[in-house]
Amino acid sequence: MIKIKNVTKKVGAKVILDDITLDIEKGTLVVLIGSSGCGKTTTLKLINKLIKPTSGEIYIDDKPISKENTIELRRKIGYVIQNTGLFPHLTIKENIELIPRLKKEKTIEEIEKTTIELLEMVGLKYEDYIDKYPSQLSGGQQQRIGVARAIATDAEIILMDEPFSALDPITRTSLQEQLFTLQDELKKTIIFVTHDMDEALKIADKICIMDSGKVAQYDTPENILRNPVNEFVKNFIGLDRVWNNPEYIKAKDIMIKDPVSVKPSRTIIQGIEIMRTSKVDSLLVTDKNHKLEGIVTVKDMKSNISKSQSLGSIMSSEVLVVKEDDNLVNILSIMNERSVGYIPVVTDEYKLAGLITRSSLLSVLSEQFLEMEVSVLG
Ligand SMILES: Nc1ncnc2c1ncn2[C@@H]1O[C@H](COP(=O)(O)OP(=O)(O)OP(=O)(O)O)[C@@H](O)[C@H]1O
Ligand SMILES: [Mg+2]
């Protein structure tokens, strides 16, 4: 949908953007994030042709925008400008309806109906605001009008430059939710600029972390958290970030690999001996292909009188398992709900991959917190 290809922007000798290449797929929400002055606003301005690149090209639907009519292009794009950018001499209603009325794709009645809906969506009462001028509104209210106006254009592309930055945390959270819901429904292509990593993680399909005019990493939130490409990204997201987002922690990150497992043909006597020497109180039973067949606990073994029976004949084959990619939140809730102290982890083919126990969880978590403390001290 939007392709930024080897774009460099210089002002005099100063390099503002240094060879940026980004591919933004249709219907996705991409967050641009980075420290102040790294070039986020400049990137949006280039897409909207407010400024021209020094070299490189931007394509929208495979057409180079340098060759497109600027006015036409801007009508395809809704733009929430940093610090609102409402027209001061127009009322709120006129501000929101300006582009839809220019486009003439909808009747006046349809446009007005949309305006009411949009104001409601951003949490403002129609009657109270419609005839006011931007200067009569607070900064946060103006930002909300800016968001409503960008959506009102019906544009396929929306550029949002720190649209929620002047809002209190509660309004901000509610607008993030609304944006997410709206995006789920409308599937616009949105480029959203923010300073706030938590905001980015809540709404982004992909995050582009920028560092002094360069792309440091462009990836899904999950990959950025799990595999930051360098120290800059690591520091930027913060060490505790992954642990504040337990849905990104997977079973495979916390499981004990190579848990003790036995073949079903083992006898109870052998099983007890294996348990004793490996200091565990249950055994996972796997077949020759390492597929999980069942589980035997020390209790099952002790209650069986004939100790020469095979483990296969006494094991319980209904084992609660999780997949390697199940996340910590799910795993903890399963362990709590079913009050189990351990849970085997299997691959998609049901092969035994690992085991999560309460103590393995505890040791992984405490190691993480130690690491955090060390990095704070050091
Ligand atoms: N017209 C200009 N002339 C000279 N330098 C400029 C111009 N516009 C922007 N810059 C510089 O380019 C760099 C990037 O600016 P930009 O506004 O894109 O940053 P940003 O990432 O949006 O920052 P912020 O988070 O503070 O909004 C800054 O160092 C800025 O001072
Ligand atoms: Mg900016």
From TrEMBL:
Descriptive protein name: Quaternary amine transport ATP-binding protein
Record note on quaternary structure: The complex is probably composed of two ATP-binding proteins, two transmembrane proteins and a solute-binding protein.
In the UniProt record, does the keyword Glycoprotein occur?
no
UniProt GO molecular function: ATP binding
Where does this protein chiefly localize?
membrane
Q: Which protein family is named in the record? A: Belongs to the ABC transporter superfamily.
Which Enzyme Commission numbers does its entry carry? 7.6.2.9
Reaction(s) catalysed by this chain, per the record, are: a quaternary ammonium(out) + ATP + H2O = a quaternary ammonium(in) + ADP + phosphate + H(+)
Q: Where is the ABC transporter domain?
A: 2-237
Please name the source species: Romboutsia sedimentorum
Q: Which residues form the CBS domain?
A: 255-311, 315-372
Tell me where on the tree of life, at the top rank, the source sits. Answer: Bacteria
Enzyme class, UniProt record, top EC level? translocase
Which keywords does the record carry? ATP-binding, CBS domain, Cell inner membrane, Cell membrane, Membrane, Nucleotide-binding, Repeat, Transport
Q: Where is the protein localized?
A: Cell inner membrane
Q: Which NCBIfam families match?
A: proV
Q: How does it sit in the membrane?
A: Peripheral membrane protein
PANTHER family membership: OSMOPROTECTANT IMPORT ATP-BINDING PROTEIN OSMV
Taxonomic lineage per UniProt? Bacteria, Bacillati, Bacillota, Clostridia, Peptostreptococcales
Q: Name one Pfam family in it.
A: ABC_tran
